[in-house]
Every structure is written in C-alpha cells, then in structure tokens.
C-alpha cells in the first residue's frame, strides 16, 4: 500500500516536472535555467524518496510545498498556479493540514497573479478543497478521532489499574516482611530491631499509656514520629516509630504497615505494668 502511494507521488512529480519544463519553453536561457534547475532537483529528490522511502523525511513532508511554491513564483506565469491544484487535491484527502497550507498558497498566488480578480477564483479554490474532503474521508477521520479518544480512556484506565496492582504488590511485600519477622524474631527486642532496619527508622519505643491512651494512630510532625496505640492483655501502651525524614510520614502505605507492626507486639508481651524496672522498651 505504501509502495503504491509512493508510486502515485512519483508519477505526479514527473508530470509536474514536465509541466514546468513546458512553461520554460520560449524563455531566455537564464530564465530557463531558473525553472529547469529547481524542477530537475525536485524530480531527483522525488525519485530518491521513491527508491528509499525511509529517508529525506523533510522533503517527503514539505518538499512539494517548497518546490511548487518556488517554481510557481520563478515561472512568472499565471498558468503556474495550476500545479497547486494537483497538490490541493492530493494532500487534502490524506492530510487536511497540508491541504489547508496548499489552499492558502493557492489563494496567495491567485492574488499575486490576478490581483483583485483573484476573488473571482476564490470560490473555485474552496470548492476544490471541499471536493477533496469527500464524505468517506470525513467519516474515516471521525472514526479515527473516536478510536484515539477510546484508546486514551483505555490507556488511562490501564495506567490506574497498573498503579493499583503495583500498590497492592508493595503492600503484600511489606506484609510478607512483617510475617517473616514474626516467625524469625525470638523476642520483642529482636522484632523491633528488625522492623527498624527494614523500614529505615531512627528509633522504635514502647511506653505505657499512663492514662493518655489514644484510640487512633497519630502522626506527630514536630517530633517526626508515628504513635500507634496498642491494647495488651495487661494494660495499654503506645508504640512510637521515629522516622529519619519527614517525607516518610507522608507515605500512607508505610504508616499503615507500621501501624500493623505496632499492633503485632501483643504476640510478644502481655503488658509493661507488671515490670516496673522496664517501663520503656526502645531500640
């Protein structure tokens, strides 16, 4: 398909080369050179693009716009704008933006060569542009825009779903780490030290509530710590997780994991009140 399109472009460029070559007949040698040299370069580049489609993308995209406008100006003949008709019809059906550029170029040359009478040709120029926008193309463009819109929605949904799964995997990984520490740690001290190392904390401490027991975890930004209340079999305690950076306190998932880690201490101790000599546990 791409090869067929390239062949169409090559044939049209050969015909346009022949058209400008015919317009140069009867002119002086210097004027002929001004027309023939750019025309020959235009044809050579067109052949090169046909033989090597992946190269000279700049010419492939804007070469016709540059050379046709240049040749239409160098010939100095009103008939030269006929070459732009072909470009409008060819590009509008494939690229509406390029078709619009050629249309405005055609309008500009119409005023340049015909002056005010160019207004008479303006409806013909517009009709040529509109005729190239046949209903099938408009419908195809509409379907393409709808497809792109749906593709963006699907991509956004997929991205959010991926973020949710990644978040879930991180939570599962942290839960697995806590479970490993519960199995491997021999006592409360080893458990707290392991939690401290895994989550890169500054310090972890357990203190009796002493009547100031709170029901929900509290983030203390001033002291850079998370306070987790835990109800044991004998008394109530507060578990403090001191972080190294205030940014860690904004990590909601980390805070939830530390909250679970704090509540798991009831598997190691029954309380602190019965141990006056060890009212505080800190690592």
Any overview of this molecule?
By secondary structure, the protein is an alpha+beta fold. It folds into two domains: 2-133, no CATH class; 135-283, Beta-Lactamase (2-Layer Sandwich). It has nine helices and five strands, in the order H-H-H-H-H-H-H-H-E-E-E-E-H-E. The protein has helices spanning 2-23, 29-51, 57-75, 82-92, 96-114, 118-132, 135-184, 188-198, 252-263, and strands at residues 201-208, 218-220, 225-231, 236-243, 281-282. A five-stranded antiparallel β-sheet has the order 2-3-4-1-5, with helices on one face. Helix 4 (82-92) packs parallel to helix 6. The longest helix is centred in the middle third of the chain and has 50 residues, at 135-184. The chain is rod-shaped, with a radius of gyration of 39 Å. Mean pLDDT is 80; it is low at 274-278.
| Subunit organisation of the chains | single chain
Mean pLDDT equals: 80
How many DSSP helices? 9
Secondary structure class reads alpha+beta
- Series of secondary-structure elements, N-terminal to C-terminal: HHHHHHHHEEEEHE
CATH class of the largest domain: Alpha Beta
- CATH topology of the largest domain, by name, is Beta-Lactamase
Just name the CATH architecture of the largest domain.
Answer: 2-Layer Sandwich
Helix content: 55-70%
Global Rg: 39 Å
């Amino acid at each position: 398909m791409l090869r067929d399109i390239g062949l169409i472009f090559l044939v049209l460029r050969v015909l346009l080369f022949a058209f400008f070559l015919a317009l140069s007949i009867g002119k002086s040698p210097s004027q002929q050179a001004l027309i023939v040299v750019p025309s020959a370069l235009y044809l050579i580049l067109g052949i090169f693009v046909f033989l090597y489609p992946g190269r000279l993308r700049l010419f492939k995209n804007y070469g016709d716009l540059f050379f046709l406008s240049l040749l239409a100006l160098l010939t100095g003949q009103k008939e030269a704008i006929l070459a732009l008709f072909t470009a409008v019809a060819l590009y509008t059906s494939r690229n509406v933006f390029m078709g619009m550029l050629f249309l405005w170029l055609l309008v500009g040359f119409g005023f340049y060569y015909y002056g005010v009478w160019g207004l008479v040709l303006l409806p013909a120029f517009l009709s040529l542009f509109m005729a190239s926008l046949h209903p099938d193309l408009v419908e195809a463009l509409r379907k393409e825009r709808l497809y792109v819109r749906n593709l963006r929605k699907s991509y956004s949904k997929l991205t959010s779903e991926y973020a949710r799964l990644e978040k879930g995997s991180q939570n599962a990984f942290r839960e697995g780490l806590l479970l490993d520490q519960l199995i491997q740690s021999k006592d409360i001290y080893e458990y707290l030290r392991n939690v401290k190392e895994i989550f890169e904390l500054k310090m972890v401490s357990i203190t009796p509530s002493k009547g100031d027991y709170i029901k929900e975890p509290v983030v203390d930004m001033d002291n850079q710590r998370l306070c987790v209340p835990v109800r044991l079999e004998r008394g109530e305690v507060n578990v403090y997780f001191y972080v190294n950076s205030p940014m860690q306190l904004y990590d909601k998932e980390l805070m939830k994991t530390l909250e679970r880690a704090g509540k798991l201490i009831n598997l190691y101790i029954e309380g602190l009140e019965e141990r006056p000599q060890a009212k505080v546990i800190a690592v």
